[in-house]
Write a structure and sequence with these properties.
About 80% of the residues lie in helices and about 0% in strands. It is built from 3 helices and no strands.
Length: about 70
């Protein structure tokens, strides 16, 4: 989708990739979970926690990709 951004991200060392993913995805995951939580019948704070768990999936996939 964004070939320039993908090359830029892949050129970074592994440690920086993890930090970049955490800084970008954690706030997005928490905010989306916080806002969508009540529509699924859970407290907004619990929805935020669920959003953080869901946002950690791309980071887990990155770690598994580099663990080979």
């Amino acid at each position: 989708m964004f070939p320039g951004l993908s090359r830029w991200f892949d050129a970074k060392p592994f440690e920086q990739q993890i930090i970049i993913l955490a800084v970008v995805l954690d706030p997005i995951g928490f905010l989306s979970g916080y806002l969508l939580g009540p529509s699924f019948g859970v407290d907004p704070l619990i929805g935020g926690v669920y959003g953080l768990v869901a946002a950690s999936l791309p980071m887990s996939l990155l770690v598994m990709r580099n663990a080979r």
